[in-house]
Input
Amino acid sequence: MPVSNKMQDEHIVIFELSQAFQETIMRNCVQKSVIAMCLLALPLTMSAPLAAQQKNDAGKSDAALSPALTIYNQQFAVVKQRLAFDLKSGRNHVEVNDITAHLEPDSVFLRSLDDSRRLTILEQNYRNDPVSELLLLSLFEGKVIDFLAPDKTVVQGRVIRSGFVPQAATYGPRYYQAAFVPQGAGQPLIEVNGKLQFTLPGQPLFPSLADDTILKPTLSWELDTDKAGAAAAELSYVTGGMNWEASYNVVAPAKGTNLDLLGWVTLDNQTGRAFRDAHIKLMAGDVNKIQPNQPVARNEALQVAGALGPGPQVTEKLFDEYHLYTLERPTTLFDRETKQVEFVRASGIKSKTVYVYDGWQIDPNYRNWSMENIRTQEAFGMQSNPKVWVMQEFTNSSDNQLGMPLPKGRVRFYRRDDSGQLEFTGENQIDHTPKDELIRLYTGNAFDLSGERHRLDYRLDSRGRSVDETFELKVRNHKTTAVEVRVVEHLYRWSNWEIIRNSDPFTKVDSQTIAFTVQIPPDGERVVNYQVHYSW
Output
């Protein structure tokens, strides 16, 4: 997607960087065009604490304003916040450390909110090496420092090697710096009284922190401006370590098929930063983004649908080719916190329980064989699956008490017993589901239904380049009520086929699948036969 002229103009005015860095930023924006649109579109009501912050008219600092988050269900987010600087005319060095530990440096946008001020970024730097014991030791390699020994005496030792190894980064050259570490480099090496040892002689005692050490991940800029005074700017960036996912709890009554549904969004913050009173939006859809696969810890709470209460706390709207869900009120999301918010609730959803018998079971010996190879293998397709699947079907429509685009997520099914207690009956996962689409989910295998699949005949005509195959399928019902079962068959030997004999009507599902729908009485059995002719 091309970057708009407005976006290009803002980059030119705001950044005025070196040619090489401009090209890097613009290339990144083209790759992440949807994310860039979010960076420019989020509301301008955000701030972060800085060393130099200004007071507003009510005496309240800009830190009281709220950040904004757009969280994607692909383990990343867009952060937007307002910064306040006290600048002098000419060159200024400014820093901000109220940022995440997984910030992507090449995604950073910084723009002035004062049209009357010229603000030029001469240089941008990002550091994510907060001070630690081993890092400080690395700064004193080759020097003598004091160690507090276990007996509380002070021992002097020369730091030959600190043992500090940089953490592997998820982008750019730092990954390689961390990945290719000489063997043994992670062990400290200390000289004490002329002898070397691979352990620290005690707790290291360091002088005061050097000017080049940091306590938190830090962004810094060299800025040039044409006038002194308070200046407001807006910082936006993409960060990893943030994720959201939807989950649904569906409850069926003791008797009947009408369902109650309760949907939750689970927010997971593993960014290394807390967001207080944040305005949060959730983006659902398959947004193209190049990033490593970094699993994020999850903590799911069990919630089930009960009596209808207040309305959902999330609203939904279409955004570009995706769907955007907005939390109705600001919320605080602490670091390493999992938070759940209700976003959909419905009662009286009409559903249908569907039984499916798919008797073909793949033989592992043929799993990777092509159709050309298996079409003449007589032993292929002999294995049988005795299980009958239980499926739940309902339509995501306004007529069926739903009609809201549902983001992908886990669906748990419960049914009340005669005493009203909830019992878990199965779960599965739905993909992003637009409104008015059918949702069909496998929830388990039926206990009182079973099936058999037998091949009765196989005839290969090598000259005529054809195969004739006959099957018999039996489905038994041990319930006290009649059931309807869809008997599915896969015509796997070749794409050119014809059913030349069948005991029951069938439906062609796709180019290699047919289905018979049969009624089975209580404690009864149905037998389905068919013969297929393949030619090539």
